[in-house]
C-alpha cells in the first residue's frame, strides 16, 4: 500500500474500531495462541485490502494526497514509505518536500518526536517484522529487502528497536 491511507467503504468504521480493541485486548493477555490469531486476522485484513486495491474495487479508495500536496510531514513520510527499501539521503527527501535538508531534520524531530533517521529505521524494521512473521524468507534476504545495507546493521537496529534478534522474533511465531 506504499504508506498511503485508504478507506474501506464496505466496512463500518465502528466494526474496525471494535476489532482493533479486541486485538489490543488479546495481545495484552500475553497468550501465544491469541497472538497467533491476531497476526492471522491482521494479515487477512491486509490481504483483503491489497486484493481489492489490485482489482481496483470502488470499496477501497485512496485517501491521501499526492506528494506535491499536503503538509511537509505528510510529504516526507510518503517519500520514505515509497523509498525506504533503497538508500536514502537527506538531500533527496528534502528536495521532494521542498525543504532545506537541515530544516527538514529539525522540523521532523520537532513534529514527530524522533529523528528522521530513527523514523526510517523504524519503517525498515516494521517491514522486516512483517516478513519475519508472514514468511520463511532467509534473514539476509529480509535485511536487504527492508533496506538495510548489511546483515550486521539489520541485526543491530532490529535488536535496538525490538529488544531481541530477528531470529528470536521469528521464533516467537512458531511458539504455540
Structure description:
With 176 residues, the chain is mainly α. It folds into three domains: 6-62; 72-113; 119-174, Homeodomain-like (Arc Repressor Mutant, subunit A, Orthogonal Bundle), CATH 1.10.10. It has nine helices and two strands. A two-stranded antiparallel sheet has the order 1-2. Helix 3 crosses helix 4 and helix 4 packs across helix 5. It starts with 5 loop residues before the first strand and ends with a helix. Mean pLDDT is 82; it is low at 57-67.
List its traits.
Arc Repressor Mutant, subunit A; 9 helices; mainly alpha; globular; single chain; two-stranded antiparallel ribbon; 3 domains; 176 residues
What is the CA-atom radius of gyration, in angstroms? 18 Å
| Strand content range | under 5%
The rough form would be described as globular
- Which secondary-structure class do the elements indicate? mainly alpha
Q: Please count the beta strands (DSSP E, at least 2 residues each).
A: 2
SSE run: EHHEHHHHHHH
Uncertain spans: 57-67
- List the domain count as a whole number: 3
Q: How would a textbook summarize the main sheet? A: 2 strands, antiparallel
Q: What separation lies between the terminal Cα atoms? A: 30 Å
Number of helices: 9
Lateral arrangement of strands in the main beta sheet:
1-2
Helical fraction? 55-70%
Residue-averaged pLDDT: 82
